[in-house]
Amino acid sequence: MHRSTSLKRRRIFNLIARIGLLTLILILGTMVMPLMDESEGLAPADLSGASVRAMAISTHGNVLYAGLTGGPQPSGIYRSGDNGRTWHLVSSGPGAAINTLAVHTVSEAVIYAGTAGGPAATTDSLWRSDDGGLTWRRFAMILPAKPDGELPAVNALAVDPNQPGVLYVGTDGHGVYRVSDDDGYNSYKLVGGISLYYAHVNSVVVGPDSQLYALADEGLFATDGDVWRKLPLSELAVSLAVAPDDPQTLYVGCVSTGAYRTTDGGQTWEPINDGMEMVPGAALRVTALAVDAQDPNHVVAATAYGAGGQLVPWGIYESRDAGRSWTKLAEADEMVMQITINQGVVSAATANGLARYGEPREPLLAKSAGTQLLP
Known about the structure:
Low-confidence stretches: 11-42, 361-375
Mean pLDDT: 79
Oligomer: single chain
CATH class of the largest domain: Mainly Beta
Strand order of the largest sheet: 1-5-4-3-2
Largest sheet: 5 strands, antiparallel
CATH superfamily of the largest domain: YVTN repeat-like/Quinoprotein amine dehydrogenase
Structural class: mainly beta
Radius of gyration: 24 Å
Helix content: under 10%
């Protein structure tokens, strides 16, 4: 009887000890997890079939962000800490369809997101995350509403490389705003006054000298801060990039005649389509452009052909001589809407997948490798 009682006591003691140990492990795990990278312990996500609406790249390191809407993967914000090799779902995002993303120039954990518009009383279209996309908050000041009371959608975001906390916001039908986001206080300014007030802005690019360019349905514009001036271009541009070392060198992709380059800030343009396999009788559209921040001569362009009212994805082309000549990097099975280049690696986003081309370059050496689908 005494032995049986002692045995029961030992079993109860062991059970209590195990429960205590389990509780301690859970507490320690809870304390340690916030200190770890937010992607640690999450299952890798395959974005090769994802509906990628937006991409953004940090100004240093291997951190990339992607915004997904629809498709087989859960919608939300995805993060890659290895230059796009693997991706992890960080959060569901700000709760609205993401149109564009941007990363702070100093802190890669600070992300901006532009989303769809709607009634001003119930909608916010500009968001900020301070923890790599885990949580999101509305800006202290919302964008001004349009005359019909609707808050405009945010289609484009660009950070100023020379002024941390300065964000340019391109809207759908309400021009471009300069947002100074400092310690939670936001001040807004309509860039260029009313000269582009009703414009539907599709892209905003900031040059290395803080020169601002905007691509709108009405054409390509540059501003000195007080007024927008339309740059002389014979055809409507649909994609835009600026050289990281020269604010006077711009690249544009047009609706039907391929790509152009200017070296005088947009006053004169030259066609740069050598090697792009132009087809007689078909319109060549350059849907996306990017210039390598570490190698200004490295330019990538995505193309599509228009024929009979249809637009057909064609190819992704790469130039190593600032657009003077191109070689085909890959076939484009889907329409490429955005391209990023980080340390020589090209990431191309479509509505049905995110593809990765090349391998990270070694210091002072640019390398080009084969094609690899994410992850």
